[in-house]
């Protein structure tokens, strides 16, 4: 059984079974009034107050030498009942120097009120008891952390399997020792024997699925405690995960459940055509916006390396298929990563930093030999993937202009140190003026200007790259000159525009639409 909640609602977080403390031979604690097998201890604390109850939270192993222990029977009874009301797990009584033995009256009162009583021998200082509780709590914390890490990796591996939903449910059931069921408008999968659901359960399912309703709920279906959790952040697509087992979930269990909920939610956000590919969706979410999706970012190491150690840094790869034949599906082996998004042009991927310049050159050369022209960003932490995505996009434009794969300079550019990122982006927005808008026309003009600058002003090569007529390219460049009041035959103005485009925030270069904005 799980311990009853304490006064502040804590029942399982950071508690250790009392029997574990009693089993410590170095303490030699002797139970005079035995505790229940499921008794748990939050902490060991010392108090000689006549009424320590107001200062306790419940779950303590209270240690006393009996300095102010009442001798009056009624007062002693009030002392014990107050500790019971405060949900003290056990009272530890230390003999000497005040008492040579535990008073019989205290033993009788504790037995009468069901308060476990321990004898602390004179050889065991109170601080040793407190230290022992702390050691056991830390041991449990580390064990829970290891279990959480292992379960997280297993769940993440399941999410990128051939049948991710069913594999996730199977892995979650194994990790928590429970049955699971995923419900939409119909059952979407289950593991284990799911009991018949009473009317109360169906009502809770309806509430959890309702827009604005609770995200989770629980009920008792003997012999199981059943937990319900909403999946997905859009009400019309919201499904409900049910799981049940006799033992209530502890804090580590709930953390593991949180990973499963996040992964199922990630799958639910995919388009139907790619619903079975969490890795593609995760890549898109990590590279979208100024900051990556926090849920996916937390899962990034496991998504990328599985059971291997987490990478110290990441790189973003942009690649374009260069052969006349149809673009093949990117191979995880060739790209050296499972995190590939091939739903856009160019293909984007997230890789673990290999640490050496040679390893990255080899990757780009292998891709080039297979028909992919690619560029790779600098190594960045997971939180800076959006910046790396933008850098890879700009490098691919340069790579396309030269026809060779490209890595960033290995030595830091001294010009980069002149402006902080925020200052550079603000300057870029100022330089671009009306081109800094978020409308389709502004984006098309920026894309055209990038390609034209990358091809050193070649109308034909720019038109071929964009899939547009050369006269459309001429019109767009003329319009940019007119709107900005600049002459792009001036190399200084070209330099200023390249600076602005390479630092413009949240603007990943892609091909503009075939629509000619001059018409």
UniProtKB/TrEMBL annotation:
This is Regulatory protein. InterPro entries: CdaR-like_regulators, PucR_C-HTH_dom, PucR_C-HTH_sf, PucR_dom. PANTHER family: CARBOHYDRATE DIACID REGULATOR, DNA-BINDING TRANSCRIPTIONAL ACTIVATOR ADER. Residues 445-501 form the PucR C-terminal helix-turn-helix domain. It comes from Thermobifida fusca TM51. Gene3D superfamilies: PucR C-terminal helix-turn-helix domain (1.10.10.2840). Residues 38-136 form the Purine catabolism PurC-like domain.
